[in-house]
Amino acid sequence: MAAILHLDMDAFFASVEQHDEPSLKGKPVIIGHHHRGVVSAASYEARVYGVRSAMPVSEAKRRCPHGVFLPGNRRRYSEVSRVVMATLGRFSPLVEPASIDEAYVDISGCETLFGPPETMARAMKAAIREATGLPCSVGVAPVKFIAKIASDYDKPDGLTIVSPETALDFLGPLPVSKIPGVGKRAEESLARLGIRVVADIRRHEPEFLARHCGKWGLDLYDKAHARGSAVVCTDREAKSVSAENTFEADTADRDILAAWLLKQAERVGRELRQEGLRGRTVTIKLKFNTFKQITRSRTLAEPTASDSAIFETARALLEAEPLPHPLRLIGVGVSQFGEPPRQLALLEPPGKKQARHDAQIDAALDRIRDKFGKAAIMRGRLFEYERKGERKEEDASGGRGPEAPGPPIGRKV
């Protein structure tokens, strides 16, 4: 019989910060310092004040003005995540990372090596704490979605085992919002049907749920009866790599926007090269100060991990887009990984020489930044964009210049 374990690191980003800086232990740590951004993570000390992930930072500061607000360190979090995933691999070869701080593990048949599920789960929690110094919560169940619910049942540092015999009783009294995929709007729709807890779903026939909720209603019916997938996919590939920034002040200045696109293209290109990926589709994300959000994409003839190719495509997409309102956020991403089928050519395709030249530049920049830090070198084009931004600020201020040095507008969140 299948036994699926779901592991979720507790307040992961904040916990890493508290581990790395012991003076932060016991303090309300909040990842997200940009006043126009959102909270990425909040320690349990901050959650006492109602601070939650995805909350506007301005609201978090209102609720917890004495909190320690940090920008976060994605590279450090990724490093710790790799240690966590490697530790899970010592217990089972079937590990499916679900995000940077959670994973599914198929522990079926591992009893002879590590004992029953509870014993194995405790050993896994202890191994992760030894390897990283961090706590985690674990749920074990016959199917994946119940294991995920179980890992959240007794946080932090929790362990919940749901056997096939107790699965229905475990699910019954839970709010329907605990089922993965049931968001606020779905919860409100179900409430209008008199469905508030999982047991309420079982009072209805599948036809009733399909009539009112469509195909999703049938999936909901199955989940209410503890039916779901127990397949752990070990070869899940990234679907996209992206970067975005929320600005300190709204802007429609295309030079400033281009500067941010170039910075983001460098971040995306570097991550693609580190992961050995190349993508064909470049997408930009624009959020106006009206909070309307749009995306625009272009698919290239050849997959790329080149900073220059990503930037030029993103900039062309931006230039083709009217800006009826200033932007509060811009982002760029690359997707559709892999090589497309193609016919071999006798002659070198146009642009191939330039692509090799760009790859050499990217590789050189990567080596310099690996050795001396990401701020050690800057592309001349980015330097020119920033100088233009500074000159425009000087003109706007009557020649006095900007009050504070630094990038034209915005900070990474």
From TrEMBL:
Requisite cofactors: Mg(2+)
Site entry (Substrate discrimination), positions: F13
Subcellular location: Cytoplasm
Biased composition (Basic and acidic residues): 384-397
Region (Disordered): 384-413
Gene3D superfamilies: 3.30.70.270, 3.40.1170.60, 5' to 3' exonuclease, C-terminal subdomain (1.10.150.20), DNA polymerase, Y-family, little finger domain (3.30.1490.100)
UniProt xrefs under PROSITE patterns: UMUC
Keyword Lipid biosynthesis among UniProt keywords: no
Residue ranges of domain UmuC in the record: 4-183
EC code(s) of this entry: 2.7.7.7
Cofactor binding comment, as recorded: Binds 2 magnesium ions per subunit.
GO terms assigned for molecular function: damaged DNA binding; DNA-directed DNA polymerase activity; magnesium ion binding
Compositional bias (Pro residues): 404-413
GO cellular component: cytosol
Reaction catalysis annotation: DNA(n) + a 2'-deoxyribonucleoside 5'-triphosphate = DNA(n+1) + diphosphate
Main location: cytoplasm
Biological processes per GO annotation: DNA repair; DNA-templated DNA replication; error-prone translesion synthesis; SOS response
Record keywords, A-Z: Cytoplasm, DNA damage, DNA repair, DNA replication, DNA-binding, DNA-directed DNA polymerase, Magnesium, Metal-binding, Mutator protein, Nucleotidyltransferase, Transferase
Binding locations of Mg(2+): D8, D101
InterPro entries xrefs: DNA/RNA_pol_sf, DNA_pol_Y-fam_lit_finger_sf, DNA_pol_Y-fam_little_finger, DNA_polymerase-Y, DNApol_IV, PolY_HhH_motif, Rev_trsase/Diguanyl_cyclase, UmuC
Record's function text: Poorly processive, error-prone DNA polymerase involved in untargeted mutagenesis. Copies undamaged DNA at stalled replication forks, which arise in vivo from mismatched or misaligned primer ends. These misaligned primers can be extended by PolIV. Exhibits no 3'-5' exonuclease (proofreading) activity. May be involved in translesional synthesis, in conjunction with the beta clamp from PolIII.
NCBIfam families: PRK02406.1 (NF002677), PRK02794.1 (NF002751)
Subunit structure: Monomer.
Family under the similarity heading: Belongs to the DNA polymerase type-Y family.
Protein name: DNA polymerase IV
Organism of derivation: Solidesulfovibrio carbinolicus
Taxonomic placement: Bacteria, Pseudomonadati, Thermodesulfobacteriota, Desulfovibrionia, Desulfovibrionales
